[in-house]
Amino acid sequence: MLNQLLQKLPENTNILEATFGLEREGLRVTPEGKIAKSDHPSVLGSRTIHPYIQTDFSEEQLELITPISDSTRQARRRLGAIFDVTQRSLEPNEAIWPLSMPPYLKAEDIEIAKLDNPEEVAYRQQLVATYGKLIQSISGIHYNFELGKNLFQTLFLESQLDNSVDFRNQVYMKLARQFLNYQWFVTYLFGATPLAEKNFYLNMPQGLARALRASKTYGYANDDKVQISFSSLDNYISDIEENIVQGHLSLEKEFYSAVRLRGSKHSRDYLEKGISYVEFRNFDINPFDPLGISQETLDSFHLFILSLLWLDDLENADADIEVAKTLNEKVALAHPLDPLPAQAQPQIILDAMRDLVQHFHLDAYYQGLVEQMELAVKAPETTICGRLFGKIADASLAAFGLTKALEYHQESTQAPYSLKGYESMELSTQMLMFDAIQKGVNLEILDENDQFLKLWHQDHVELVKNGNMTSRDNYVVPLAMANKTVTKKILDQAGFPTPQGQEFANMDAAIRYYPLIADKAIVVKPKSTNFGLGISIFQKPASQADYAKALDIAFAEDSDVLVEEFITGTEYRFFTLNGKCEAVLLRLAANVVGDGKHSIKDLVDLKNQDPLRGSGHRSPLEKIQLGDIEQLMLAQQGYDVDSVLEEGVKVELRGNSNISTGGDSVDLTEDMDQSYKDLAAQMADVMGAWVCGVDLIIPDINQKADINQPNVHCIELNFNPSMYMHTYCHQGPGQAITPKILQELFPELPIYGK
Amino acid sequence: MLNQLLQKLPENTNILEATFGLEREGLRVTPEGKIAKSDHPSVLGSRTIHPYIQTDFSEEQLELITPISDSTRQARRRLGAIFDVTQRSLEPNEAIWPLSMPPYLKAEDIEIAKLDNPEEVAYRQQLVATYGKLIQSISGIHYNFELGKNLFQTLFLESQLDNSVDFRNQVYMKLARQFLNYQWFVTYLFGATPLAEKNFYLNMPQGLARALRASKTYGYANDDKVQISFSSLDNYISDIEENIVQGHLSLEKEFYSAVRLRGSKHSRDYLEKGISYVEFRNFDINPFDPLGISQETLDSFHLFILSLLWLDDLENADADIEVAKTLNEKVALAHPLDPLPAQAQPQIILDAMRDLVQHFHLDAYYQGLVEQMELAVKAPETTICGRLFGKIADASLAAFGLTKALEYHQESTQAPYSLKGYESMELSTQMLMFDAIQKGVNLEILDENDQFLKLWHQDHVELVKNGNMTSRDNYVVPLAMANKTVTKKILDQAGFPTPQGQEFANMDAAIRYYPLIADKAIVVKPKSTNFGLGISIFQKPASQADYAKALDIAFAEDSDVLVEEFITGTEYRFFTLNGKCEAVLLRLAANVVGDGKHSIKDLVDLKNQDPLRGSGHRSPLEKIQLGDIEQLMLAQQGYDVDSVLEEGVKVELRGNSNISTGGDSVDLTEDMDQSYKDLAAQMADVMGAWVCGVDLIIPDINQKADINQPNVHCIELNFNPSMYMHTYCHQGPGQAITPKILQELFPELPIYGK
């Protein structure tokens, strides 16, 4: 008996160390709240390989699966991202139903999932034959749990047992037993299936319940003949095997317990390999949470699991569990506002949780969770089902469900450029993560601050940093692009036009160069910086004093400085990928256009309302500021912030065209002459770059590119070019780049048809 | 007539803009000063493809060829490096003869170069038949010259001619004519062949000369029948073609003029394509300069060339040149201390140079060169041949030649780890450049400060930075290795042992971690820095205060900090390349070992005399300092700098084992158990790294590596591992890494036999 095991652990033990996995089912519905008739979205790729987004029983029943996660927060954050991606991948106007019980539907509305694997389809057909079709549409959430490796090892040492597989099986069997013994507690707190819509059951429940899905009567349960003992692993295995021999179960996985042992297809294998983890299947979808399960629920349940291990084991497991099941049925079928029945003893479990929190010095958050559960025990109206009671109208939750479905759908689509839960990462990385989740490429964030991802499909692993730094570029090429002198030499040697110029390592030599540029338009810039810092442009010849000042500024940024001829024309950014130009962008300085009514200040406010504009590089465009620089710029043009511009009059608020200072992005991919796109791609090719941002200065895009004249110059190649900038533009359709990166990295994915 | 053309150029014209190429011949000799009988060194690879090191007529006659260079300094610097590489590639004890005239030798000593191309061999056999064998062994230097592109363009615009090819031909024909007209001036200044060793000529010269090689009588000259006009390109071409028809010349290249038109095999092609450049073949090897030609000579000759263009063209070219040739012969055969004959008018050329220097405001250096030439005209003893006169003993320069040959050889070999002229670059890059020059891979420095090289063989181009950053590593791998968290995750996931630990982004979280490490030996380190900065090691458990201090130090270096268990053992560096461990290094803290006689200070001085020790990372080891840190370390052990240590007693002067603070490097490649080498290579492979420095902590290298125990931990992977460190070691044989890099990059080179 594994009693008092936790109590003996040192207080600084990381008792919360565990791994978690979540599976959330959900029906796709139409904007009218009817079950969707469409196929599983094709943009989600192949269900044969998709690790995150599957269909459950029926074509319209989504199953969202998180990878194994090191904390409840990580698991829920991943679920949030997968949910976000899924919502944004649905047919227009479809949404995900936010309740476990489906909206009103008939059996013929339900279509068995169109899976490639015929065995999977056959299994579903057999389920229909045994249990009927309608009941398959009930959705829920599964909570997979494993104790952390170090914690388990500490427990094992504490146990002084010899065999860690035996110990593992004992721990998880105790957990399963205890769970069944206290399931009523979970049903009470988290039950959220008070009713079924009209005609769902042949025999509809009389009145409201707390958790139809958790009840034996209305939930998804095995035949009464199926009786499996949890008193020991040996008994469990022999019961399972006996039931299969008897034909009560077709497969082991047909045993629908609220708790499942996991890790092997056949229970008998646990004797040798040990139970890997356990799966709790009792969670109804919480419609008050967009994801169907809140952070507090996840952590409360985690505390609950630990308290099950904290408590002493059952004396007479099978008998105790039998009693507990009856209690659970009673709680499940009670009215949402009914308190727990008298024979339930929540105090035991609450005390265990409180002792545990105290013993391991868990913080106030966990204390609060225990208090919240205590309150819920006293006040049924604070439970999920208690709150849901108020949303019932005409014995239906259809209206409430639809409202919530649309609300959550709206939340997912309002910032299409970002990935829920990962908004602090770089936008391009968020977009690539979105694509990976959508297409079913496995994703792990190796370093969040460093934008470092691991992507894989089967054995094929790709590391990606910043969304565009991959194995497809060789190491020395970005190093060459980071060095303006090297870049220029390579382009020059290949015959591509670049501004003529000279590199200087000291002020003296640079000053001595003055006579040669005294009558020329020039640019003075640091050799290696990449953010426009330290650059001076002289569109008219500079005086020697101004030239010296510009050199000072540039030398402050870098030990080497370039002095180059200034090329007249407009600068365009060409994004090239694997030898092809995928996007062309024009960047315009922050500006407003008058309407004869609004002041410049108001025009800026209006323009800043664009949801694409934000701050801190976490949205595709930045809000226009009205600081000193902008006001000076206005003053130079004879305006102030209160000036009202004539209709159509455009005023620039900045001298530079950076997006980061409120500039506009204009997608010109379709309008740009192919000759320039080809030229940009050739430059990237000569450089050997897979990903490249080519900055070309072009005086007249109506002429075709001609490198012999030349009427186009390359002023810079960028090894870390922004991708999101091309995707969500102030003007123009925008070009999605990250999906192409993903496709180039994983051409073998079934969705790409290769 | 292209007269007064330079005079019309604006004074800020970059008149010195030009490209230069040098070819220097030289005989290999034995330590006794006899002609070498050995084959061309096999380490120099294939003469069929070698761009820098060839054989000229005979097997022992080296020809060193610089690439086209943008300045005389660049050309000479490259010649220096090629010369250095060549000397260091010779058979032990061989050296390069520093005079144009060979040491005493007989015709049978000379073996025609063993070239692969039978046509080349046949051509040489024909030369023997026509001119004899001995005269082929005279060596010289060729100076190739082309006006800079911008300068040429400026001149062309100034000329107001229509056709730039015509103009180009006119310019270079004028240059050739004028050169022949003033060749005596060059012969006077730079002639350095006063005598031939015994029996060299059938008819030996009577007495000393200034420049036997430049004379028609003793030099390498065509038959008198060969008469070629330089009055115009048309005349030149028709004369050449006529001489071939007549059989006076077998090929166009058999016309041995002191100046040659270059760019096409057939002169007639110049009419359409233009003369590319001109080659001046008049330079004797200057034995007072290791390279055979000094910087001052190169620049003086450059001024001379420009002054030829500055002067008005010849009125009667052919007649003038005929007169000039007679004068040249007179100067060439005059005694080394004879002044110029009266009919020579050096003042014309000296005035032209002075006018040019003044017109274009050339700096004091160029003024000085003109003054030096002026002096030389007045004082024949200051010319090269004048100086050489004093070195003649017994009518021979054999002893002087040998002394100089050995002196220059010694200079090349005294710092075998560096490449002459490029000592300010990183050592590993210098070594790779050495290898490229040696094996005949084309080399261009794209950015010297950035250690950025372009290497190529035929169409195959490789960019290399820092000697080890190449196309063979993919971009994301070094980024992953630069991130300790990512590295650890990848190694962990692959099952390789790394120290357990935790990453923190803020002080708070790191402090809260304290209970978990309160009783452990730990390392606190910044996540991304690479130079040992900010690392604290607690071999015994740290107090919370010390832990917090260590965190402060680490957070000062990086926004993320790692706290890891401290692994006991010795750290070894494994250098892996393309899946194979190529070298293993142990680094020991700066130390001295007593001899019972010397003080610690003296022991340090003695140890610092090792030529491998220098300062500033430009030698394989650093000199040991005796600063505050070292003295404190001594004091802690009860010593001071004057203590005399017992024989065999070793004292450490530093707590850290970095080479940069005077540490010793010990090459353990051969002694390290293969299991560790394999493990390091596997780690690099899992990481996907082509080049990798794997740092392993091993408590006992006598045990085999076992990752299950584990008895070995990886503490870091380095994406920019030092290579030179493994090559020149304080102890152990040392492993040459850069040749392997080169071989991996260019496996197709004939020398690698693939």
TrEMBL record, chains A, B:
Keywords: ATP-binding, Glutathione biosynthesis, Ligase, Magnesium, Manganese, Metal-binding, Multifunctional enzyme, Nucleotide-binding. InterPro entries: ATP-grasp, Gln_synth/guanido_kin_cat_dom, Glu_cys_ligase, Glut_biosynth, Glut_cys_ligase, GshAB_ATP-grasp, PRibGlycinamid_synth_ATP-grasp. Its cofactor is Mn(2+); Mg(2+). Pfam families: ATP-grasp_6 (PF18419), GARS_A (PF01071), Glu_cys_ligase (PF04262). PROSITE patterns: ATP_GRASP (PS50975). This is Glutathione biosynthesis bifunctional protein GshAB. In the N-terminal section; belongs to the glutamate--cysteine ligase type 1 family. Type 2 subfamily. GO terms for cellular component: cytosol. Its EC number is 6.3.2.2, 6.3.2.3. It catalyses: gamma-L-glutamyl-L-cysteine + glycine + ATP = glutathione + ADP + phosphate + H(+); L-cysteine + L-glutamate + ATP = gamma-L-glutamyl-L-cysteine + ADP + phosphate + H(+). Synthesizes glutathione from L-glutamate and L-cysteine via gamma-L-glutamyl-L-cysteine. Residues 488-746 form the ATP-grasp domain. Residues 1-332 are annotated as: Glutamate--cysteine ligase. PANTHER family: GLUTAMATE--CYSTEINE LIGASE. Monomer. It comes from Streptococcus bovimastitidis. GO terms for molecular function: ATP binding; glutamate-cysteine ligase activity; glutathione synthase activity; metal ion binding. Pathway: Sulfur metabolism; glutathione biosynthesis; glutathione from L-cysteine and L-glutamate: step 1/2; Sulfur metabolism; glutathione biosynthesis; glutathione from L-cysteine and L-glutamate: step 2/2.
